[in-house]
């Protein structure tokens, strides 16, 4: 297909082992703050479950039935609304393949998670971009106008947003939901926000899909488990399109074990939020960086004019600190830094001070 032939390969991150070998450093000496992972990892129960894993020779439950039942209790939506995927990534792909025909339109609000744009292009849809404002808030009047005029099938909203960490208000979300469009609300980072998830809104709105993941607040990024709550009018099509055994035996067992230790997960969440605030204060003192307040487990920093974000990222990488750089639409340079453990922040800050 021509739209695939023309695509460049998007590599999300480089493996930590590759950098450790390149720098001749131990993996434990690399500070990995580039992919918004959780530095603490899942509760100890997960290691026990994986160590004694049974049924690796049997296909996993195609419905992730126990996991959906456990999630339903916690989330306040019936399990009939829920589908579990191999990460939220898989659910984004499923939404595109179920909702869109070639030539259909979606609205995307960059800068944001790039996967929506890539997956829409893969099914031959057109992406209408409504860029965010300079403070990264949504350009709501424009989103509404474009949605009314262009009649897209879906509007994608990340809340809190990646890469900047900003939120959408209840009022703005309600305005969007009153339009004839499917609103896909990606709540991958919602646990760090202190705000209530809108996942239970799917019971009220037939045009809302909410995505969440075990990758961030639960520390299970490597096992690939995400889930979505879908309107009942859509969910059966998601089941049709989903690969039968999309979530492995190990991933389902680990996610269930994680849910059984909510105190551990809450402690991790609290540590990360506390460290985010400390890291914000420290980054604010670096003369060539301007951090943006964040409701997530990462902080976006604007780089002073005259300094290249990519160069800074490369210099930090040489010192064993992995972060992301972006050149966003206004051509200013930005760094996105994941909140790690306090020791990670301290090493990062030492390196930034050396660069200064
Ligand atoms: N949505 C957003 C906004 C993300 O940043 C990410 C991960 N980078 C995902 C979804 C995908 O998460 P998962 O690991 O569950 O596929």
TrEMBL record:
Required cofactor(s): pyridoxal 5'-phosphate
SUPFAM superfamilies hit by this protein: PLP-dependent transferases
Domain Aminotransferase class I/classII large: 29-349
Superkingdom of origin organism: Eukaryota
GO biological process: L-histidine biosynthetic process
Name of the protein in question: histidinol-phosphate transaminase
Organism: Zostera marina (Eelgrass)
GO molecular function: histidinol-phosphate transaminase activity; pyridoxal phosphate binding
């Amino acid at each position: 297909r021509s739209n695939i032939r023309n695509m460049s390969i998007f590599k999300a991150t480089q493996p930590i082992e590759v950098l450790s070998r390149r720098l001749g450093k131990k993996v434990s000496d690399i500070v990995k703050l580039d992919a918004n992972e959780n530095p603490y990892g899942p509760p100890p129960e997960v290691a026990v479950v994986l160590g004694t894993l049974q049924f690796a020779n049997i296909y996993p439950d195609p419905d992730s039935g126990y996991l959906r039942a456990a999630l339903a209790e916690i989330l306040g939506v019936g399990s009939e609304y829920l589908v579990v995927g191999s990460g939220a990534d898989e659910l984004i792909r499923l939404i595109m393949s179920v909702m869109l025909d070639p030539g259909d339109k979606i609205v995307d609000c960059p800068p944001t998670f790039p996967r929506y744009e890539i997956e829409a292009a893969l099914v031959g849809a057109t992406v209408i971009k409504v860029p965010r404002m300079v403070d990264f808030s949504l350009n709501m009047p424009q989103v509404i106008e474009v949605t009314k005029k262009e009649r897209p099938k879906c509007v994608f909203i990340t809340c809190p947003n990646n890469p900047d960490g900003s939120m959408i208000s209840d009022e703005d979300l309600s305005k969007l939901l009153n339009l004839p469009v499917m609103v896909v609300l990606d709540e991958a980072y919602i646990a760090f926000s202190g705000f209530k998830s809108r996942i239970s809104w799917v019971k009220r709105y037939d045009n809302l899909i909410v995505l969440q993941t075990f990758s961030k607040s639960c520390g299970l990024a490597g096992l690939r488990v995400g889930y979505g709550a879908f309107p009942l009018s859509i969910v059966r099509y998601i089941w049709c399109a989903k690969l039968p055994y999309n979530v492995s035996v190990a991933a389902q067992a680990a996610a269930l074990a994680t849910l059984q230790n909510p105190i551990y997960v809450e402690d991790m969440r609290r540590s990360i939020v506390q460290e985010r605030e400390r890291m914000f204060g420290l980054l604010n003192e670096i003369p060539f960086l301007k951090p943006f307040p964040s409701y997530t487990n990462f902080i976006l920093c604007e780089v002073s004019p005259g300094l290249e974000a990519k160069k800074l990222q490369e210099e930090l990488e040489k010192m064993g600190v992995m972060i992301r750089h972006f050149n966003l639409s206004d051509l200013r340079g930005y760094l996105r830094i994941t909140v790690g453990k306090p020791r990670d922040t301290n090493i990062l800050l030492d390196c930034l001070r050396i660069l200064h």
